[in-house]
Amino acid sequence: MDAFPIFLNVKDCFCLIVGGGSVAARKADLLLECGANVRVVAPQLGHEIHTLWQLGKLTWNNHSFTVDDLAGVVLVIAATDNPDVNRDVSFLARQRNLPVNVVDNPALCTFTVPSIIDRSPLVVAVSTGGVSPVLARLLRARLETLIPATYGNLSVLAARFRAQVKLHFSHPPDRRKFWEKVLSGPIAEMIFSGREEAAYHALEQELVSTDRTNSITGEVYLVGGGPGDPDLLTFRALRLMQQADVVVHDRLISEGVLNLVRRDAERIYVGKERDNHAVPQEGINSLLVRLAKAGKRVVRLKGGDPFIFGRGGEEIETLAREGIPFQVVPGITAASGCAAYAGIPLTHRDYSQACIFVTGHTKDGRMNLNWSALVLPQQTVVFYMGLTALPILCAGLIANGLDPLTPAALVEQGTTVNQRVHIGTVGTLPELMEGKSVRPPTLVIVGHVVKLHEQLSWFDGRSQL
Ligand code: SAH
């Protein structure tokens, strides 16, 4: 290592920034966040620092840098666009053994400012020693996605129970094991999803429990897996998938998404084929309960969003009744995913001020829908349904007064590399699809916004490979 990594306590200490531009403003923000007394020296201030000065957040020495500005400071940052000034600042600061940073000039620095991931009180700093700030920023972005925004709250939990846990486990390895379990398991997840009280309670339970290895009950995460493209998962979905002991999934979950589940996790398929229920809903509900009671962390992975035509509500009702902790992670629903990837905005100021999601299941060759609500002008209607019901759907819309010339799109395997978008009108789409080999899942979008596809289409499944 070329530099000694430290975190410096600058609370209430004077720190000098030379320069008044926007780079200087960012440094000032950071120092202020750490509780420093910020002194800026510059003949003029840019808008951002000027605002901070007006708000009384920092002091301003309204002139060009002189050696007197260094009096009483513990740290110096030079952020001017004048190389001579920067060099002088560096030289004079070093002469006085003051740590100095000259922005974008590692040769003149005695310290560099890392990229940070702020989960206060937990802070991760990334440094390339000033060699490549871009590389540090890229790594930072990757870490940001891995560390939950509320990760720092775990340290609050740890602080609160530290003494109690120490008392309970006199043997340090036991203590470490206990904390590892708490800080990476369901209790941590409770903290991440904002359920502090539940987490404190669970931790207390865990402490009093006699059987320490198995006492934490499992938890069920009802996770929206999105419409297919794995990139559309949320950070939380991905994190929970990578911690799961078991994943319970169905047919809509794409291979790409399933590949992101922790390799060692057990996989249980409960998919439903049309009219051929692999596992009845009650079976799924009780399976989830059984697994959680056995102490497993269960990810119930559903296509799209679990609360949109996903029967997610029913599954967690059973869990709630059984007192099993759960959380729900929203996903991108097929309508949003398919519309975005087909270049069809669901609303548009000129064409559509409302959007309805409808499930178009047929029963005895009929669709039981509120047709009059579906044929109103200036709206988009999205039908979640298979291809077979398309003729009944279009005939129903026309019979209820919708203009047969209304544009309509059928999106096949949306957001995946196999996506195909078929465009027609409510009058022509069924005929257009006849005899075509179409693979499920498919979604139908009806409304004048469909016209925009021609202009806004950007995703071409295969060519994205
Ligand atoms: N909970 C899911 C919907 C489940 S209902 C969600 O929020 O998306 C299943 C229906 O969703 C399918 O019949 C199909 O109409 C639609 N669907 C799901 N994924 C799709 C995709 N990638 N492309 C097209 N339609 C999709």
Write a structural description.
By secondary structure, the protein is an alpha/beta fold. The protein has 4 domains: 14-113, 3-Layer(aba) Sandwich (Rossmann fold), CATH 3.40.50; 151-208, Helicase, Ruva Protein, domain 3 (Orthogonal Bundle); 219-332, Cobalt-precorrin-4 Transmethylase, domain 1, CATH 3.40.1010.10; 338-464, Methyltransferase, Cobalt-precorrin-4 Transmethylase, Domain 2, CATH 3.30.950.10. 35% of the residues lie in helices and 20% in strands. It has 17 helices and 21 strands. The strands form 6 sheets. Strands 3-2-1-4-5 form a 5-stranded parallel sheet, with helices on both faces. Strand 2, helix 2 and strand 3 form a beta-alpha-beta unit. The longest helix has 16 residues, at 153-168.
Short characterization:
With 465 residues, the chain is an alpha/beta fold.
Protein topology:
Layout: E1 14-18, H1 22-33, E2 37-41, H2 47-54, E3 59-61, E4 73-78, H3 83-95, E5 100-102, E6 115-119, E7 122-126, H4 133-146, H5 153-168, H6 172-184, H7 186-192, H8 196-208, E8 219-224, H9 235-243, E9 246-249, H10 255-258, E10 266-269, E11 272-273, E12 276-277, H11 281-293, E13 297-302, H12 312-321, E14 326-329, H13 334-342, E15 354-359, E16 362-363, E17 366-367, H14 371-374, E18 379-384, H15 390-399, E19 407-412, E20 420-425, H16 429-433, E21 442-446, H17 453-456
Parallel strand pairs: 1-2, 1-4, 2-3, 4-5, 8-13, 8-14, 9-10, 9-13, 15-18
Antiparallel strand pairs: 6-7, 11-12, 16-17, 18-21, 19-20, 19-21
Helix pairs in contact: 5-6, 7-8, 11-12
Bound molecules: S-adenosyl-L-homocysteine.
